[in-house]
Amino acid sequence: MSETLRFEAFSSMVEPEFWSGLAHHKLHSARLDTARTVVRGEFSGGRRHAVRGNSAEPTQRLAVPARLRVNQGAWEAAQGNTQQQAGAVGVNGYLHNTNTIEEFKKRDKGELLRDAGAEILEAIRSGRATQTPELLWPFLLLSFADLKKYHFYHWFAFPAVTADPPDMATEAPAPLSSFISRSSDLEHLLTTFAGSSVCAQGAFVARYYPSNVDNPWRVGPLSEWSEIYGSDKAEDGGIALLGFVDPSSHSTRPGWPLRNMLTWLRHCHPEATNVNILCFRDTALLAGGTVDGATLVQQCESIVMRVNVTPVASLTSECQVSGWERNEKQKLVPRIVNLSSTMDPVRLAESALDLNLQLMRWRLAPSIDLAKIAGTRALLVGAGTLGAYTARVLLAWGMRKITFVDNGRVSFSNPARQPLYDFEDSLDGGKPKAEAAASSMRKIFPNVDSQGIQMTIPMPGHSISASEMDGTRATVARLDELVASHDVIFLLTDSRESRWLPTLLGTLHRKIVICVALGFDSYVAMRHGVYAHDDDFEPMGAPKAADSNEAVRLGCYFCNDVVAPTDSLSDRTLDQQCTVTRPGLAPIASGTAVELLTTILQHPQGGHAPPAAPGANGGAGEFGDPEHQIRGYLLGFRQHAIVGQASSLCTACSPSVINAYRQHGFDFLLRAFNNTLVSEDAPHCAAEDSADAPADYSYLETLTGLAALHRQTDTMLETIEWSESDDDFEAI
Known about the structure:
Strand content: 15-25%
């Protein structure tokens, strides 16, 4: 009997975790690169599954497809961490991931197969396949990952160099259990495999000695062909076999790997034209523990067959290759995996957010450090129009820690202008703004760590009564704790004086502080200068270390003021109580402020980065050098960058203010809030500015020296003789 040898084709089995790994690989490693990538897969010996019928029907054993498994370990194994299932054979796969669905459809599938076949033949001819048999069984994976929808288009191929005329089966396949003479011989074979790595290589040569009760099997790798299979061993009475781990469970058809095994045989050992093939399927029994020989025979699935191999000289074509996987209807078409419905929606949202950011790195900003941005903790002082827009842009940049501080409640006028609130938030007196803003952020993106702190910030010019003392002290301590535990502080409140205490604390803790303020049709977004060392808090004019940055430190929001902040909220008309500004201004200002922050974070000097030089385009950071102040105007749609140095007389960030707070703590703040200025305040003020300070100068003005500057200016003005006579004008 002689008939064409037929094979059981591979069927891919891909675990969902592999597709998640592909998404990560595409975003973070490959990006636009379509060069092939090595991944790992594995297959084991084929097993039939026992299916029990009713009492009248015997148990049936049903064949299952020959599986090649690919899971999350495919990515780790490709990096050298080759851990595979016990009894499994690991193989390399070559991923060809395309950038578009059109590229996926147009890719020349025939060319991919031919190239793979040529590599298999080269590995055979060079002898590499003899040393590493897994080179005979590579697989291909052509794919396109639609990461917006989490659809994965793919097509597996298992390249096989085919023979024409085909190889022939000269005898009907026989179970291994009937091939051997004794049940103990099967136990000896399994023991031999378990004690070596031959089976894990996927291919082997063997010689069976039926008459040798004690040592009936000799098994070795392909490289020991001549020692085990060679013709000089024929006289010893043994039966030579070429074996492989067979993933097929079909009763008569061997698995797909045999095709390339026979190609190896016809090229490397052309003298072997009629061979015994051991299709070893019992890898699951290798780790099965102690089982008697009779039971093993019952469980044995392996088969032995005799094959007539077509010589190379008789082939019509030396490199005919087939192997694209067919679907369940046996059609040659690609497949699609839709994971959007099975994945956690929160995880999908996170992946979608990361997708938009990672795409920046593909072409436009390959060096951007997204992890640094995502890990930045932002404190937003003010949860109104500016706070809402700023939070949304921070979230779009992937920041995961955003805290709001505000004392207001959502009013009916807020939802239309402030994108974190809706109509429901304004009912029943309105929800607390900070808490409502944080809740809205979590609804938008569940993985954000957002908290709302309802807090009224103490302010200069707003007196603190005795009954409010303990509460104010606790508020200051809580705000100090919040500033210390965050990396960047955004000042987004409506009044000037409410920005004073956060500015002081941000300066003290050397945080990045960004201030945004609106006019009717103008805005400013600016960063505050950051002290480099504690020594820099010494008074201006004191000896400085050589590396001190005091001389070039950038100014804060208050550095250009010649008066201290005071109560600007009392006795205001309706238009002064509300932020009257053109509606499109707030998102522009907020977006500018956040982009200023990301520019700082991507600069090697961070908060100490120098401002961009006039007319410069670029700088040391990924986004260039960060500006100090950006002032924009809707009238004429103009924008200017301004640089201002820190002032030694600043009422918020000067060394005299910082040191007064460090030395006297809440007592200093209380004097600033209540504007207390009496003769016993001398320890807090310059000697010449304390006891004799006029009542119309505030405590902070006296402390910093602004009061003295005013008096000097007044004295100079008094000495100037002003003339109003026409005779004093010079004709031009």
